[in-house]
Amino acid sequence: MRNLLLIISGPSGVGKGTIVKELIKSGKYSLSVSCTTRSPRAGEVDGREYFFITREKFMQMIADGGFIEYNNHFGNYYGTPKGFVDEKLKTDDVILEIEVNGALKVKTTHPEAILIMILPPDRDELRARLVGRNSESEENIEERLKRMDYEVSLEDKYDYIVINDDLATAVKNIEEIIEREKEQEI
Ligand code: ADP
Ligand code: 5GP
């Protein structure tokens, strides 16, 4: 049976990180750790949320063909490290938590990847979550809300849409999607 490559996307602040942490807790899936040039937020640990690397190192990795995909998002680079993911896929189902452009790039090189988009119940709730997370300036929040419209415009390209209203329900819905997909692999 082939291990699954699962891609989770959705607007900033919708709860992707929170959902992914819950999925990982079950011990059933492995998480890909991306590289980024952005600075760590309070509580983020190098090698756990991201590999926090310099722009120079990022450019070197691009030149070396070290990414499955990469993108410049909100002024910083983010990329999925190829060796890291290939190694994990040998033993586990792997979750990538990446934005839409990167996700669609992976779908072209890995057509078997399963694309799941997480959406908020509504825009006001998304804003409340971004404000509540206390990690962005007002300007960044506006930029992230604008970006939501673009992401939602691509929802048709995704295999599944999951609304993150109640967290436990959203996590359960995703687990059910993964179980169904695994059954099809047998
Ligand atoms: P993302 O990774 O998509 O940017 P986060 O996981 O950082 O989003 O979540 C943004 C904020 O929303 C966090 O403060 C988180 O605790 C909160 N949050 C996540 N899911 C829910 C939910 N279902 N209901 C209410 N708040 C949530
Ligand atoms: P944040 O700065 O809030 O952690 O992430 C910003 C955005 O970058 C999120 O939408 C997240 O999904 C996306 N992202 C994280 N890692 C990667 C990656 O490796 N590649 C791409 N394309 N996007 C990523």
Key terms:
186 residues; alpha/beta; Rossmann fold; four-stranded mixed β-sheet; 7 helices
Reported by name, the CATH topology is Rossmann fold
- State the helical fraction: 40-55%
Structural class: alpha/beta
Q: Strand tally, please?
A: 9
CATH class: Alpha Beta
Order of helices and strands: EHEEEHEEHEHEHHEH
Q: Mind describing the biggest β-sheet?
A: 5 strands, parallel
CATH architectural name: 3-Layer(aba) Sandwich
Number of helices, where a helix is a run of at least 4 consecutive DSSP H or I residues? 7
What value does the average pLDDT take? 94
Short description:
45% of the residues lie in helices and 23% in strands. With 186 residues, it is of the alpha/beta class. The termini are close together.
What is the topology?
Blueprint (H helix, E strand, L loop, with lengths): L4 E5 L6 H10 L3 E3 L2 E3 L13 E3 L2 H9 L3 E7 L2 E6 H8 L3 E5 L2 H10 L4 E6 L3 H11 L4 H16 L6 E4 L3 H19 L1
Parallel strand pairs: 1-7, 1-8, 2-7, 3-4, 8-9
Antiparallel strand pairs: 3-6, 5-6
Helix pairs in contact: 1-7
The protein binds adenosine-5'-diphosphate and guanosine-5'-monophosphate.
Provide an overview of this structure.
This protein has 186 residues and is of the alpha/beta class. It has one domain (5-185): Rossmann fold, CATH 3.40.50.300. It is 45% helix and 23% strand. It is built from seven helices and nine strands, in the order βαβββαββαβαβααβα. A hairpin with a 2-residue loop joins strand 5 and strand 6. Helix 1 (16-25) packs across helix 7 (167-185). The radius of gyration is 16 Å and the shape is globular. The model has no long low-confidence stretch (mean pLDDT 94). It binds adenosine-5'-diphosphate (ADP) and guanosine-5'-monophosphate. Adenosine-5'-diphosphate (ADP) binds next to helix 1 and helix 5.
